[in-house]
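Observation: inputs received (chain + pyridoxal-5'-phosphate).
Thought: call the complex predictor directly.
Action: predict_structure
Action Input:
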Amino acid sequence: MSELSKKVTDLYQKHHFNMYRRFPLTLIKGEGCRVWDDEGKEYIDALAGIAVNSVGHSHPNVVRAISEQANKLIHISNIYHNVPQSSLAKLLTQLSGLDRVYFTNSGLEANEGALKLARKYGDQQGKKGPVISFENCFHGRSIGTIAMGKENYQKGFGPMPEGFMQLPYNDVEALGRIDDDAIAVFVEVIQGEGGIVPGNQEFLEKLGEVCRKKDILLVIDEIQTGIGRTGKMFAFEYYSLKPDILTLAKGLGGGVPIGAVLATEKVASMFQPGDHGTTFGGNPLACAAALATITTIMEEHLTEAAIEQGNYLRNALNMLASEVDEIKEVRGIGLMWGVEFIFPCREIALKMMERGVLVSCTNNTVIRIVPPLTISREELDSVIGALAGAVEEYINSL
Ligand code: PLP
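Observation:
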């Protein structure tokens, strides 16, 4: 371990909250799909800051937009208008087909805002029913969003707020338990933190139908799937779904923290001045970064690239799975893939890191591959090679 790494690790152990199970790696530079550690070792970043750096590290367009904006104006609060925010609002509403947007700083904040919006809507409609979410979902780590999520994230943080109900995911029959009085349903089209679990067509389309018929808000959480990740700008476009509320973050700002809540006119009108707000959300710097990120995705045809490279990756992963009995399943779409093992996979992620490829282990048994949308064939070959090598080494060590 280098002197710098040792110093950083010691400081982490001494001064930081012990919240993250960090890998023993200090990164100091990134470019495209590559990152470098403090000793100059190069890695292919197939995690992309957990599905964030969709146009790669330090894309020149994003760097230019950030530096130009930083030279002009970084922050002004939401008491005044700002130009990049209004341009981003126009672009996102056009792309999503929704009418209005407000900006947040993260994913959980977007979902927490969506929750408030949904409750206000429910209140106006005289509904007393629950907000529904699905088993194995992840919507963030605030009290409101853990109340929607998995029980193990709630442990020790009770009492949980009332008014929530969970149903099994991908279970069409269970949708029959959604009562007319329910306020909203939060759903990930592909469960991300849950281990890359795609929603099936019949389930998602039936869900859309139930929501429409019973006037229940359909809240689609595209914090991980949105902004080109799955090969469409938004993953809901694969289905005949129309969200009433759409939440975004992660890939939106090319690495700069920003989230968004989009809604139809009818739903957005629930928030009036004083109902909700944020100091930083949608500041000029973050919005300039997001504008540059989305424009780059469109100009460089990165949604098409995500489909093409994703198909290549899928075939290679399926090939590997056919040779390795310990791989239970390969799941995903576009450039969002999960390889589920029959055992915990953190060791495999560590061994891939030693081989110069960064991925994460999510939901204990799933290697998550969510590289920048700009990843090349050669880089994907290295990812697959590192996975195959790490799996072989790990299995031999058992
Ligand atoms: N929703 C989904 C689907 C996510 O994947 C995440 C983060 O992983 C969140 C919400 C929370 O986002 P954040 O970590 O920015 O609060």
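Thought: report the result.
Final Answer: Residues 106-108, 111, 138-140, 188, 192-193, 221, 223-224, 249 surround pyridoxal-5'-phosphate (CB under 6 Å). The two ends are 26 Å apart (CA to CA).
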